[in-house]
Amino acid sequence: MIMNQRINKLKRHLLVDERPLCIERIKYFTEAYRESEFEPEIIRRAKGMANFLDKITIFIEDGELIVGNVASKPMGVELQPVRGEWVSTDKLSDEEPFIYKKSLEGSVEGIGISKAELQELQPITEYWMRKVKSDYAHRMLSEKHYLAAESSVTIQGHGRRVGMGQGISGQGASTGMGLGGVYSFILDHEWHLRHGLNHIIEEAEQELKNIDFTRPDCAKKANFLRAVIICHKAAIRFAKRFSALASELASKEADPTRKKELERIASNCDWVPANPARDFWEALQSFWLVDLMCHPSHTGAPGRFDQYMHPYYKRDIEKGRITREGALELLCCLRVKHSELREIFEPEMWRRGYPGAEMFQNIVLGGVDRDGRDVTNELSYLLLEAAKECPTPHPTLSIRVHEGTPDDFMMKALEVVKTGLGMPAFFGDKCYTDFWLYEGLPLEIARDWALAGCTYSNPPKFTGESTGSAICPAKVLEFALWDGWDPRIGKQVGPKTGAFESFESFDDLMRAFKEQFDYFMKITTDCENISLAIKFPLTSQPFLTPLMLPDSIKTGNDLEEGCAPVEVVEVDTVGMINAADSLAAIKKLVFDEKKITKKQLKDALATNWHGHEDIRQMCLAAPKYGNDDDYVDLIAREAYQLFVELAHSIPSVRGETQTLRKKTYTLPCAFSVGLHLAEGVFTGATPDGRCAGEPLADGSVSAMRGRDTNGPTALMKSAAKINQLPINGSLMNMKFHPSALKTNEDMKKLTNLIKTYLVDLEGKHVQFNVVDAETLRDAREHPENHRDLIVRVAGYSAYFVTLTKEIQEEIIQRSELSL
Amino acid sequence: MNTTSQRVGVLFDIQRYSIHDGPGIRTLVFMKGCPMKCIWCQNPESQRIEREVMFYNEKCTGCGQCVQVCPQGAIKIFEGRSLTDMDICTGHAKCVEVCPNEARSLVGKYVSVDEVFKEVMKDRAFYKRSGGGITISGGESTSQPDFVTDLLAKCQEAAIHTAIETCGCVGWEILENVVRHTDLVLYDLKLIDSAEHVKYTGVSNNQILDNARRLSKAYAKLPMVVRVPIIPGYTDSIKNIEGIAKFVSTELGDSARFELLNYNPLGETKYERLGRQYGASDLRPVSDESIARLREIMTSYGLKSQGEQ
Question: Contact B19/A614, CB-based, under 8 Å?
Fold first, then answer.
């Protein structure tokens, strides 16, 4: 009972209309950075971090059991000094206090900043404007790259700077204020919980004393070690500031229960993360502080949290130091902390590309150990329960499903799904393991995979950051139809692959599609490779590196040098299903049945179907992916296969440096995040019957909204025809009407559905929104009544009312399956 | 192995991921044709065995293309919309082909046993894991007995679990032929009173009750679920439910299970689209509490609900 009060109170404070934009972090970072002008880059970064950790305003909220904030105000959005392009100053004009609200029509959540802070921010922004990493990258790129970005067929991080893409930034670490963050990493939490940060400092100091000055890299190593020591000492001081604050609050606290809690918080933060955690509460506190200090750096996922936290939980339970309820309460408190977290760079693109401002805090539950045995434990169940007790959009929960996943665990998971929270998501344990085996990893490491993004995986601790540019095959097809011309911007962007009218067969079209695809894949990877190549030392990571790679103290290599055992450069894809549906419609109507001519089709597309409704109807009636129809499914398979082959044909800058992964090529991925909306804006009418500007299909193996009419098994069968194995991550959204999940029997059948797809058909991922369309429509019209309604967006959940109108509509339209 | 059958049947739908008509995940095959005409019927398009045209009034623009192609001259344009004389219509469906607005759709498709089997096999992986299979419903599953027997036999041969839903209004020999290839029978009982049965379904229940008895004796090992549709004002009286409970408990042996199906109002607009009158309009599903109360009556007779061990 008391717990519910506490959690409800903490949860309520997440529902704010305006999130304050905080500038302390960037202010103090910049202050130190300016003062260290002639020092090595890595030292400047370390000092910048130390300075804000020492000076940023901290607070402890009433009722909190896990403490630590990275924004200087409650529910604040901290402007990011280590990642992200910031908007130019002219954009921060008069619209105070809801400066971004206007551009985010439909969303209730604004971001506010005061005039005084705005003035303070101005010189800081100007200072960084010329130092943005993408500027460096920009100078090395050429016209063809800018053109591709302007047309938005590729989506990468240099967009805004060259006036392209109107605000669709890259997904990756390719941005940065001359600094850049790290994208998609999973720390070795197990290691730091066991050893503590002092251990790192001691080792670094020892190594520094023994440095071998005969080595050519001695200076680099010495600077790295010095930077590590600066950061980690600052991190410990940061924790001790919370300890002191808690003590102070305790001394003033009248309520004896809260007083005791505060005293415990003080002792926790005094001990961790400097030292090894001694119990469950300390372990959670240590996890949170370390995680926080890596943030906001996109995206540090907790990984296999139920595994490395379990020993602490188990010992406390055995020794009677904690009750199950007590542990549940702590986990709920941690959920609230995760949901407070928010970063921002370019606000508008952030909100459109990643609706709901997700931080990709993905906790993986269950799965197998290195020997292939099921590892679901009490804590796995408890984490599900915490999501039910404390339904916040973050962190995301994901279940690794394999043959031995206990049925009652699946049922418990579905009980959480049933609340409409959109989580947990379900992942094919074996298909991911097979993927990493295919990449050349040893079996026991492949089996340890976790999710570093929404459906993007990597083996924790071994993997350096990845980047993330995306390519849009629906747009690629447009180039194949228009001989490389972009009708939207009126420019020749792609290579000349022949006029569609001159194609004699479907194969001719496929050849043009392939050539265009090849061309744009190379452009996309160019941008990724260059942004990785220039990262070190600009974006060196002295705090993160030893937490990822404990032996970096010995090697002196920074993570940003690309020295992890597994290094990847990835390309994501969005809108593949629209390309497949379109190709199928063309094959059927133009080539097989000759019902319409090529010219008729092009005219209809060029006019966005205006005056060609009959042709649009024929296109809509053509076979659609998601219905277990080989005619189109095999085209989808072929298109994905092409994507994989092209990625595999392109080497990456980090191919050679890794030691564990045996492949050097670019990694194909398919998760799309919220990019199907953003990319839809730039893609003209497509031959699948879609109108220009409309969102593309969500996910990567979901059907286009409303086009799958044969139910979930048919969609899964379609998806299973795509060879998902060599692709890192796939994404399938399903919406179920609550009536399909009423009884235990229904849920058992849904468990079977999920297991058939993930275990027998070797699918990679499926997730569910369980909410009826009427509720969503009502929430769109009356957001005030649905502040706490949570929906699944892409690989993560968000408060529905904080989404833009476009994505709200898109979610409403996704097929709803009921019985 | 692999008997092929080109025998053709008339289906009006195939529905995958069906989870409420037998164990596991199932594919539901709806046969056209039914000997009964329940006034609350929610699948009126299933009653006739012939193919028929459904008309979506709201989509019609009155363009008249259908009028020109109809071989029977059954269509006229009236007040800007096309009107079909259903008594003359023979379901040639030329009008469906030419309609540019999808205002006309054809209910009923001629399909061979092999074709349906192929469709059913698509979800084999799901059946295997969930213990599911095929359920043949309708209409009335036994209305096309040769087709259904072939299909069930073929499924059994492929180790697919088979179920039929039947109203029992069929000759014993025909029913027996079908159930020989069936692993589960979903047996509908609507009204226990014979006069009421005639009044609301158009037929007497003598044959239905008799077939149920014979099934439970001759096929004692064949699992049977007695399904009672709860139609407010028609079948939901305590007297009726008690009567059915008494019949099942005393005459159908211990293995029979029961299931109460709440009224589903989704079919009302279909009548209009078929140019027919709905005899039981304005019905709403009964409350969960009422269902629970009726279920208690059934269990008070020692009956177990479907799914219970």
Answer: no
Contact A819 B24 (CB under 8 A): no
Tell if the CB–CB gap between B16 and A713 is shorter than 8 Å.
yes
Nearest CB to A752; choose among B100, B129, B307: B129
Q: What is the pLDDT of residue B142?
A: 95
Helix, strand, coil content of chain A in percent (nearest 5) = 50, 10, 40
Find the mean pLDDT for residues B220-247: 95
Least confident of A255-259, A566-570, A598-602, A772-776: A772-776
B288 shares contact with chain A (CB less than 8 Å): no
Instruction: Give residue A176's Cα distance to chain centre.
Output: 17
Using the beta-carbon criterion (under 8 Å), do A749 and B24 form an inter-chain contact? yes
Tell me if A745 and B19 make a contact (CB, 8 A cut-off): yes
With 0-12 CB in 10 A as exposed, 13-18 as middle and 19+ as buried, what is A123? Answer: exposed
CB-based contact A713 B122, cutoff 8 Å:
yes
Residue of A nearest to B100 (CA): A614
Closest by Cβ to B25, choosing from A614, A752, A760: A752
Look at B126 and A714 and tell me if their CB atoms are within 8 Å: no
Residue of chain A whose Cα is closest to the Cα of B130: A752
Sign, CA dihedral A93-A95-A101-A104, equals: negative
Written as one string, the DSSP assignment of chain B is -------EEEEEEEEEEE-SSSSSSEEEEEES--S---TT-S-GGGTSSS-EEEE-GGG-----HHHHH-TT--EEEETTEEEE-TTT--S--HHHHH-TT--EEEE-EEEEHHHHHHHHHTTHHHHHHHT-EEEEESS-GGGSHHHHHHHHHHHHHTT-EEEEEE---S-HHHHHHHHTT-SEEEEE---SSHHHHHHHHSS-SHHHHHHHHHHHHHTTTS-EEEEEEE-TTTT--HHHHHHHHHHHHHHS-TT-EEEEEE--GGGHHHHHHTT---TTTT--PPPHHHHHHHHHHHHHTT-EETT--
Can you name the residues that pair with A18 across neighbouring β-strands? A110
Own/partner pairs, A755-758, CB within 8 angstroms, 24+ separation: A755/A401, A755/A403, A755/A405, A755/A410, A755/B129, A756/A713, A756/A716, A756/B25, A756/B125, A756/B126, A756/B128, A756/B129, A756/B130, A757/A428, A757/A716, A757/A719, A757/A720, A758/A401, A758/A426, A758/A427, A758/A428, A758/A429, A758/A431
Q: What is the pLDDT of residue A96?
A: 36
Would the CB atoms of B17 and A746 count as touching at under 8 Å?
no
Q: Which residues of A touch B20 (CB under 8 A)?
A: 819
Compare CB distances from B24 to A752, A755, A817 and report the shortest one's residue: A752
pTM of the model: 0.91
What is the ipTM score, two decimals? 0.91
* Interchain contact B18–A (C-beta under 8 A): yes
Nearest to B123 among A713, A755, A819 (CB): A713
